[in-house]
Design brief:
heterodimer, A: mainly beta, 7-stranded mixed β-sheet, 4-stranded antiparallel β-sheet, 11 strands, B: mainly beta, 6-stranded mixed β-sheet, 12 strands, about 0% helix
């Protein structure tokens, strides 16, 4: 049981490049989300999904796209990377409802130069 | 809107001392959930505890204890007899009742705890 798997763990992009951060979970969780962590700001929600085909914006969605074609996968796309997107990105998943809490991936450290 | 405040940015204590990390929250939901996560230097987020708004009983788990007080909207975390391995950033978080959008976690800015040997 792998839990939440994020790839890659590290990435360096040039300004304007695009890339996709992958997130997969094998726990059949309905709810998945992406957060970014910046120094002194805690974790902020980018996008979330309550099930396949359903996504919505979080607190800081600009510059990011998501889709949820399957229950297992929730990729985060940066269409044109900017230095302001340098951050550590975490994917999290949970069952519907709050009885079980969230499971987080190990994070992706992204640097945009 | 939900908000979590961790006013202590950094705390340093000598090993074996007790330390309390403060968390104050704001929400208009009647049903909500509070969490604490630990982020050690390796970077992963480790779940510590979940508490729902209807359960105000304090909880103790080994050297860790949590004090939930709805009257002051606080959910404080105490480490007794601290150890070097407790050095980490600790996050308090809040979510609403499971509903479209309400289940998302709102995090505090974290408290960096350093235990001095």
């Amino acid at each position: 049981n792998a839990g939440v798997t994020q790839t890659p763990k590290f990435q360096v992009l040039k300004t304007g490049q695009s890339m996709t951060l992958q997130c997969a979970q094998d726990m059949n969780h309905e709810y998945m989300s992406w957060y970014r962590q910046d120094p002194g700001m805690g974790l902020r929600l980018i996008h979330y999904s309550v099930g396949a085909g359903i996504t919505d914006q979080g607190e800081v969605p600009n510059g990011y796209n998501v889709s949820r074609s399957t229950t297992e996968d929730f990729p985060l796309r940066l269409l044109s990377a900017a230095p302001s997107q340098t951050s550590v990105y975490f994917c999290a998943s949970s069952y519907w409802g709050q009885s079980y809490g969230y499971t987080f991936g190990s994070g992706t450290r992204l640097t945009v130069v | 809107a939900q908000k979590v405040t961790q006013a202590q940015t950094e705390i340093s204590v000598v090993e074996k001392e007790d330390v309390t990390l403060d968390c104050v929250y704001e929400t208009r939901d009647t049903t909500y959930y509070l969490f604490w996560y630990k982020q050690p230097p390796s970077g992963e987020l480790v779940f510590l505890i979940r508490r729902n708004s209807f359960d105000e009983q304090n909880e103790i788990s080994g050297r860790y204890s949590w004090n939930f007080q709805k009257s002051t909207s606080s959910f404080n975390f105490t480490i007794t007899a601290s150890q070097v391995v407790d050095s980490a950033v600790y996050f308090c978080a809040l979510s609403g009742e499971a509903n479209f959008g309400n289940e998302k976690l709102t995090f505090g800015t974290g408290t960096r705890l350093t235990i001095i040997p």
